[in-house]
Please model this.
Amino acid sequence: EKFVFHLPAQLKMEQAAPLLGAGIASWSPLRTWQIGAGSKLAIVGLGGIGHLALKFAKALGAHVTLITRAPHKIQEGLRLGADQVLLSSDMTQMASVKNQYDLILDTTPDHHDLQPYLSALAIRGTLVQLGHPTELEATLYPASLAFAGKSIARSVLGSVQETRAMLAFCAQHG
Model:
């Protein structure tokens, strides 16, 4: 009974099901890092977690950039509310956001280089790994993290309390 959640009347069961996996996985770091109005957030990847992270972050009032390697996801990202969409393969676009983001949620499950995303973090910014790739590029430069107070974190799922809060937020914000 500790792990049973009351669904608000505004949420149908089929709407709530994805929230209990991808939803809480994206909600928890947004709340942990206190994302809200005035925050600058980037989301790497537009799969299930990235989709919900984008919708949550916009509803929380953040400025949201989607970073994708798939050009066909640009319009989808904009439709979901992204303020900006960047192609990760375009180094000019990536260089244009150097030191910009308070938080980057990396939802990519594939092998990839973190350095372009670490460069996009603002001073004291955090890159949170949600995609759980089996392997990461080893081109991390600890000094570039330390001198700017940047950090890398991982997040898996949220607590029971966070899940209840997320369900209430979804009911309130549609």
Q: What stands out?
A: The mean pLDDT is 90.
